[in-house]
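Notebook, student rotation project (T.W.).
Task set for the rotation: take a protein with a known small-molecule partner, predict the structure of the complex, and write up what can be learned from the model alone. Partner molecule chosen: S-adenosylmethionine. Sequence and SMILES entered below by T.W., checked by me.
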Amino acid sequence: MQFLIILGIVFLLFVIWKYWTLALGAGYDPTPTKCICRMLELAEINEDDIVYDMGSGDGRILIAAARLYGARAVGIEADPSRFIYSWLNILVSGQVKRARVKFGNLFKKNISDATIVTLFLFGPTNNKLKDKLLRELKPGTRVVSYIWTFEGWEMQGYLPENRLYLYVIK
Ligand SMILES: C[S@@+](CC[C@H](N)C(=O)[O-])C[C@H]1O[C@@H](n2cnc3c(N)ncnc32)[C@H](O)[C@@H]1O
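Predicted structure of the complex:
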């Protein structure tokens, strides 16, 4: 009986872990590695940029922005296991001076120093984020979204074969 209760608790914790970021904005699904450079190049990244990855998962976008383009990069991640994993990933990659990850809800973190924002979230989440992006980002900031668009925003570029969409804050 005790064993079944423990098994039930473990199962419940697993379900909460698996689905709670889905409730916050999006579940985990990594952007394919081949799309990461295309995403950053669509935003015309350079070494003066500050890239924010909203829901930064395993941190590969942050590491690529820092290592390949010399930019600074900040991730925001609400899942504790992915936060720790991406922090270690950045440490091992040797990019700690340029890349870092913050733990928490991306809706609650200030992103006003970003010059590029990358996202792979979910359609309704992108639309909920529009007010925040317009409120906090400077004119000229590039926003690149993988798969999901922003309803009513005019696209400034796209790569249909990679499902990448570029917007520029006015
Ligand atoms: C589809 S994955 C994308 C991961 C990474 N950006 C990439 O492209 O490989 C979405 C990530 O956003 C995180 N996430 C979802 N909602 C969030 C929120 N409100 N605050 C912070 N992170 C969130 C999830 O935990 C997940 O790691």
